[in-house]
Every structure is written in C-alpha cells, then in structure tokens.
Design goal:
The protein folds into four domains: 1-27 and 473-661, no CATH class; 31-162; 213-273 and 380-471, no CATH class; 278-366. 55% of the residues lie in helices and 12% in strands. The protein has helices spanning 39-51, 55-67, 73-84, 94-104, 114-128, 137-145, 148-157, 164-181, 187-190, 213-241, 243-269, 283-286, 294-309, 317-323, 325-339, 350-366, 380-405, 410-472, 476-498, 615-625, 628-641, 645-648; strands at 20-26, 505-514, 518-523, 529-530, 532-541, 544-553, 558-567, 572-580, 584-591, 597-603. It has a four-stranded antiparallel β-sheet. A hairpin with a 3-residue loop joins strand 8 (572-580) and strand 9 (584-591). The chain is elongated.
C-alpha cells in the first residue's frame, strides 16, 4: 500500500515471488516531434534523447536534421556523441566508421568556438586510443580546459570507447562527479513521484434517476380534472340549496386550501431520507460482509489502509476503523462503482481514497462526520398553520356536503354524494401525485447540488495532487543522471575490490535490468525506469571475465544480494536470447562448468504502449538503455572466439582519425 510520499510496502513469504507492483506511462511531450517539425526542432529533440539516455533515437533525429541542412560544430558534436554513446568501436558497422572518419576531416570547416573545440578534442581522444599512454597528456589538458557541459558530455557518452591509461587519468574525476551528483536535486525525497501513476480524473455518483416523476405528471391531469368537476358539482348543489352559505363555504375552502399549500408545501414535499450515502445506490456492495471482485477488494484494502493512518486525535487506528465502518464501506462501494472498468489500476485512484480518508477525519474534528447534508428547517408556525388549515378545509368540505344535502331530493342526493365521493377520491389522488412529483424534484435538485459540490471538491483535490506530483516528479535527465552515478560508483567499487585499473582491462560492459519486486514508469517514447535495478558488470581482462552483480534500490542507492564469479574465456560456451511478447527478453549464459544462468533483461510492455508508439522501436530503446546490445555482442564474441577474441579487439586495430585545423 502506498503512503503519501513513498513506495508500495510489500512482503512475500520464503520462496515466493512478488512481481510488478505498479507501472505508469507519463503523458509527456518531451520526445514529441511534429511530422512537419523543422530540422532545428528535430535536432533539439535529438539532443534531449541523448541527454536522457536514448542514443539510438538521438542518432536518428540528429542525422535527419543534418540531412536537411541543419549543420554546425554543435550539431556534429552531438551527432558524434550519439554515434558512440553506450557503444564500443566494435558495435559500429563499416558505414558508421566511415561516416565518423569523414566527420573528423570536416572539423576545420566549422566556425571557431567552444563547440568546434569540443568536437576537435573528441576526435583527438579517439585518435589517442591506439597511441602510447605517454602521448595523451596534451589532449587531456585540452579536455579539462573545456566548459563543464561539453567535458562531462564527452566523458559520459564515450564511456565504452575510452579505455586503458586514457580512462585511468579521467576516472578519478568521474568518480568525484558521481559522488557529488548521486543524491543531488533531493533524489531521496523526489524519486518516488516518478513511479506514481498519473491520477485518474475525479468522479462522483450522479443523482439517482427518477422513475416516478413522469408517471405522476402523466396521471395528475385526469385526477385534477375529476376533482374540479366533482367539487364544482358539489358546490353548485350547495348553491342551489343555500346560496349564501355556499358562497361563504367556498371562500373559506379556498382560503384554507391556499393556506395549507402555502405553509405546508415544504413540509409535505420534504424527502424522507434516512441515508444519503453510497449505500442507497449500491447496498449490496456497501454491506461490510459482502464479497466483491478483485478491484473492489483492493479499493476496500486501500480505504482500510488510509483510514488507519489518517486518524483523528485521540483515536487508535482500530478504534477509528470500527467507528467509521459504515462510512468506509459506503465510500468504497462508491469508488468501486465509479471506477470499476477494464485496465483501471487502484493506484490511479489512491489520491481520491486518501483525500476521502482525510475528509472523514476533518469532518469528525468539526463534528459533522455523520451529517447527511443540509436539511430544510420548517418553522413550527408553518407546520401549525398548515395543520389548522387542513382541519378547517376538512370541516368546510363536510359543511358544504351538508348544505348541498339539506334541500335535495332522492335523485339529487345521489348525485351530490357521488360528486362528493369523486371529489374526495380524486382530490386525494391528485394531491398524492403532486406531492410525489414535487418530492422527487426536490430530491433531484438536492442530489444534483450535492453531486456538483462533491465533484468540485474532488476536482480541487485532484488538481492539488497532480500539481504536487508535477512539481516533485524528477525529469528524465535527473533520472538518467542518478542512474549513471550509481553505475559509475558500482564500477569503481568493483575495480577497487579486484585491485584493477583501467589499464588492466580490455573492455567492460554493464547490464542494467529490473529487480523484482519493482515499480516502473516511463515518459511516452522513452525507456522504462525502475524502482529496483539489478546491475551486472562484466570486466574483461587478459585472464578472463570477472562478473559482479548486485541489486539496487533506486530510491536511496542501497545495495543487497551481491554475487561475484570469475571464469576463463573458454568457460563461456554460448549466449542465447529468448524473446517473447508475453514475458519479454531473457539472456541465457551457458558455462562449461556450471548450470545455465537466465537473466531477465526486460519484461513485456506491449500492453503499456500508446497507439502512436511502435512496439519494435520502444523495445529497442529499452534494450539499449539496459546495455543489452553491447553486452550481448561482447559475450557472444567471447563465447565464439574464446581467447582469440582479444586479438580481434586489439586497440592497435582501431581506425585512425584526423582533425587537421
């Protein structure tokens, strides 16, 4: 269950598995490019892709911008970084190497400035890879003289390219920068918001539809006409017998009737409502002992959780839960009814459940917890006047009947009694129908006001929560920066443990995969980011491969479940990949001296794609973000060639670059 500022709390028994706890896709326009976007706009989005750790998309966007005439030293600088980011030389195909070589010869054509200097130094670093370590001093001096923005970009994106003594000289700076930035920008207090689902919009139960107003209004005219005819016939009969008394009785009846309606209408039409909560709509769900589907049960558990931690002063959690049992289950029935639909996760409704728990606590503090809303207050004088008027009206009707019968023959007496009976029955029926319609109209008006007020309050709560999330949620650049810092310090600790320097390494690769249980989130068209990661580092030396793995809690960078293993080149017999639309990507390492090891690279995500997203493209983005492409090629090459792989990856075989100015 989520609290207001952290992750889901979950537990699992021994030898059990907890899977994905929550996942969300942020509707961000960070990576959105309009089909008619200018080359400059495509370049800008490409740079954003690069900064956020999606170099494959950055290469496409920046290459497209250059092809349409948007070219400069700055553009070429970012294009080179995109070509090399998260890749080694051996991940580049022949065409890409030729394009890099051609680009190195064009540096002198750009206008002088910091971007041309950064581009030139980038190619000088690449040229230094196949030279002696003693010749790198001048290039490193120029690199350190660059502005921080360009220097840090070079060091970050050329991580897999720079090796040996060149990287040794730069590693201390990398480590210090990672230590300084690792918990920057309030990481521990903000990162939870990235995995918080976008809150679903507020809803409230609409007024219950009336099934009686139309029927009452349809039946009322006939009763009213019959009452009018019967009353008129009775009065005419009284008028024939005693004209003066009949006129007086008519005036008294009209005054009494007007007084009864004038002062008794609000009293008679007021709705009798013992309960106006959600139980009236869904009594079978509001019963605390009722059973519901999975969504309903999750809603109930969420209400139990938040009512237990949002207690008024002086209440213990269990005492408050018992005190609010009917309110709580009524609210859970309302939320279950409003949001029970396919693909709605309870986490998206959590903000509303939390708000309702807080509202119940606040209403208790104000002494209005069990109030059923504003009631019409009927003055006692109005009730008394209405009652007296009804009594007078009744006696007047009897008096009029007596007057009509005082001088009537047998035949007229029959008609008089018939008129009186018809007027009495139709008058009672017409009044009942009119009161029923008026009561329903009053109820609909009241429930509409309550619905509008409740919805307005929930809209404010939703907007407040959404604004808080937007202000708290880290950017893609911050998430990528924190992840890179964690990886840098993990690699540094591994080097220290094995007492290795970069001069001792032929190459390295790090595979970043999700560690269960986790929450995950991403921006549209961006890679998945996880609340828990598994880092698996492969250090390749002349003697073989050293593998170190550990699980990271991305919130606070704490580690556990660390494992280490060493094996010779010949011990890695095969590397296989299994792709499934239902499960995701699995990497299988087969060693000659042990069982095969399966590594889940990424889980399936096709059901989380937006209609305008391409499944293959998103899958490629996630595999690149995990470091899978480079890792697979490296391990596949070692498995195929054994120790002969070292000769194919000799730095002296790297292409040369020229940056003549």
């Amino acid at each position: 269950m989520n609290d207001s500022g952290g992750f889901t709390h979950h537990s699992a028994a021994y030898d059990s598995t907890v899977g994905i706890q929550a996942e969300t896709v942020h509707n961000s326009n960070v990576y959105f490019v309009h089909p008619d976007a200018s080359p400059a706009e495509k370049y800008r989005v490409g740079v954003r892709f690069l900064e956020d750790g999606i170099p494959s998309r950055a290469r496409d966007m920046i290459t497209d911008a250059i092809a349409h005439g948007h070219d400069s030293a700055e553009v070429q600088f970012h294009w080179v970084l995109a070509m090399l980011s998260a890749r080694s030389y051996h991940d580049l195909n022949t065409e890409e190497l030729q394009r890099l070589r051609r680009a190195s010869g064009l540096v002198r054509n750009y206008a002088a400035g910091e971007w041309r200097s950064a581009l030139r130094i980038t190619f000088e670093l690449l040229a230094m890879l196949s030279t002696a370590d003693s010749d790198t001093g001048l290039v490193l001096q120029r690199l350190r003289a660059l502005p921080p923005r360009q220097r840090e970009a070079i060091l970050r994106h050329l991580d897999l390219v720079l090796t040996g003594g060149l990287k040794d000289a730069l590693w201390a700076e990398n480590r210090e920068r990672a230590e300084a930035d690792r918990f920057g920008n309030d990481r521990v207090q903000r990162i939870w918001a990235y995995f918080e689902p976008d809150p679903i919009g507020p809803r409230a139960l609409p007024p219950r539809p009336s099934t009686t107003i139309a029927a009452a209004q349809a039946a009322f005219p006939a009763r009213a006409v019959l009452f009018t005819v019967g009353s008129a016939a009775l009065w005419i009969s009284a008028l024939v017998s005693e004209p003066v008394e009949a006129v007086i009785e008519l005036l008294v009846a009209l005054c009494a009737g007007w007084t009864a309606v004038r002062f008794g209408r609000r009293w008679w039409c007021r709705e009798r409502r013992p309960n106006a909560t959600a139980e009236a709509h869904v009594p079978h769900l509001a019963d605390p002992n009722a059973t519901g589907d999975g969504f309903t049960n999750r809603v109930r558990h969420a209400f139990d959780h938040y009512f237990a931690i949002r207690t008024p002063h002086g209440f213990a959690p269990q005492e408050w839960l018992g005190h609010t049992v009917h309110i709580r289950y009524g609210l859970s029935a309302e939320i279950a009814l409003l949001y029970r639909e396919n693909r709605i996760n309870v986490d998206r409704v959590t903000w509303l459940i939390r708000y309702l728990a807080e509202d119940a606590r606040d209403r208790h503090n104000r002494g209005t917890l069990f109030d059923q809303g504003p009631q019409d207050r009927i003055p006692a004088t109005s009730k008394a006047l209405s009652a007296v008027a009804l009594v007078v009206l009744g006696f007047t009707a009897l008096a009029m009947l007596a007057t009509a019968a005082s001088d009537a023959g047998a035949s007229r007496m029959f008609l008089t009694l018939l008129a009186a009976a018809g007027a009495g029955w139709s008058g009672h029926a017409a009044a009942s129908l009119w009161l029923e319609a008026r009561r329903e109209e009053h109820r609909l008006a009241r429930e509409t006001r309550e619905h509008d007020a409740k919805l307005s309050e929930r809209q404010i709560a939703h907007q407040n929560w959404k604004s808080f999330l937007d202000a708290t949620r880290p950017t893609e650049l911050e998430m990528e920066t924190w992840l890179n810092c964690d990886k840098t310090l993990f690699i540094d600790e591994a080097l220290r443990h094995y007492q290795l320097t970069w001069r001792d390494l032929i190459t390295h690769t790090i595979l970043v995969t999700p560690a269960r249980p986790y929450k995950r989130g991403r921006a549209r068209r961006g890679p998945w980011r996880y609340s828990r990661y598994s880092f698996r580092l492969f250090l390749v030396t002349q003697d073989g491969v050293r593998e170190i793995s550990s699980e990271f809690d991305f919130t606070d960078a704490k580690r556990d479940n660390e494992q280490r293993s060493n094996y010779r080149f010949e011990a890695l017999s095969s590397v296989q990949v299994t792709e499934s639309a239902q499960t995701g990507y699995d990497l299988e390492l087969v060693l000659t001296n042990g069982p095969a090891r399966n590594i889940r690279v990424k889980d399936a995500d096709a059901h989380q794609l937006a209609p305008d997203e391409n499944a293959r493209e998103i899958s490629e983005i996630n595999l690149n973000a995990a470091g899978f492409i480079h890792t697979f090629r490296l391990l596949e090459g070692i498995a195929a060639d054994g120790k002969g792989w070292i000769d194919r990856n000799n730095p002296n075989n790297l292409p040369s670059f020229h940056t003549d100015d």
